[in-house]
Amino acid sequence: MLKFDMRALQDALDAERRARGLTWAELAAEINEPFKHPPSIPISVGTLRTMTTKRSVTSAVLLQALRWLRRTPESFLAGRDQAPSPGEALPVAGHSQILRFDTAAIHAALDAKRKE
Predict the structure, then answer these.
(1) Cα–Cα–Cα angle for 110, 113, 114, nearest 5°?
(2) Beta bridge partner(s), residue 77
(3) Cα separation, 103 vs 72, whole angstroms
(4) How far is Cα 60 from Cα 38, in angstroms, rounded to an integer?
(5) How far apart are CA 116 and CA 102, in angstroms?
(6) Is residue 15 domain-resident?
(7) Dist CA 114 CA 116 (whole Å)
(8) Prediction pTM value
């Protein structure tokens, strides 16, 4: 099983931030912009800067960072030797919509696999 490469995500965020001439605070503001009106806790600058030093990162942080980069989770799998397919793209979220993992669907898929 391939593992998600948090360092690669951090590096991609930093590279894109630098390419756009953004500070870390400006990056956080851009990532938070689409969902500043719904009741949500904004992603902090510190969280974005120190993701690789944390024991875990919430799905909200991960998905919003991927959304900003326009990348798929699969594009950050360590050791993956193929480009992500169109079917792996994150769903388009409208303004003020926050991407979340469908934990019920994940549980159902894992349970079905376990029963096989």
Answers:
(1) 85
(2) 4
(3) 18
(4) 14
(5) 22
(6) yes
(7) 5
(8) 0.74
Q: What CA–CA distances, in Å, run from 66 to 90, 107, 112, 113, 114?
A: 8, 22, 28, 27, 29
* Segments forming the whole domain that contains residue 20: 6-82+93-115
- 88 domain residue, yes or no: no
pLDDT tens for the chain, 116 residues long, are 788 899 999 999 999 999 999 999 999 999 888 776 666 678 889 989 888 888 888 888 888 899 889 888 888 888 888 777 777 777 776 666 667 777 788 888 888 888 98
Is 13 in contact with 75 (CB distance < 8 Å)?
A: no
CA distance 28 to 65: 9
Question: Which of 50, 47, 54 is closest to 31 using CA atoms?
Answer: 47
Residue type, 4: F
Q: Quick check: is 48 in a domain?
A: yes
Count of the separate structural domains present in the chain: 1
Assigned domain for 1 exists: no
